[in-house]
Design goal:
Layout: E1 2-4, E2 11-15, E3 20-25, E4 31-36, E5 45-48, E6 60-63, E7 70-75, E8 80-85, E9 90-95, E10 100-106, E11 113-118, E12 123-128, E13 133-137, E14 147-148
Antiparallel strand pairs: 1-2, 2-3, 3-4, 5-6, 7-8, 8-9, 9-10, 11-12, 12-13, 13-14
Length: 153
Amino acid sequence: MNYINAHDHTLICVGTNDNAIRIFDESNHRVVSSWIAIYDQHAPIQLSHSHRPSTGSPNTTTVYGPPAKPVVDWNQHLCRLYASNSNIDYIALWDVERELCLYTIDTGAVNGVHCLLSDSNGFCAAGMGDGTVRCFDTRSKETVIPTIPPSAS
């Protein structure tokens, strides 16, 4: 959850479990805007068990991973929204006024994004599921990713 325009007409930005962004007017609690910010293309995992039922067909179970946790950061200075979730390996950079995805940033990690922080110069830091922190310069799509490893302690 983030405040948008906290100094003026305050809006509340919320990332949801269904990968949507919803923006509410704080004064009347109504939805001002809503859109799907993240497209998660992960299919359910199929597990085959070694035993076979009497019909001779393999026993297949569909297993779904843990629900994705939305991760959102609002950058007031740039009027941009950074969105991701704990099950995907990219960050979507949104122009909120136009509800337009400017581009996505591949994080290079397989453990998902667990927290985001951006600054007014266009830099973004993402805390990954494996404990690393990856930093991005969002001014360029050709971003080098310096990685800060988790501490040994």
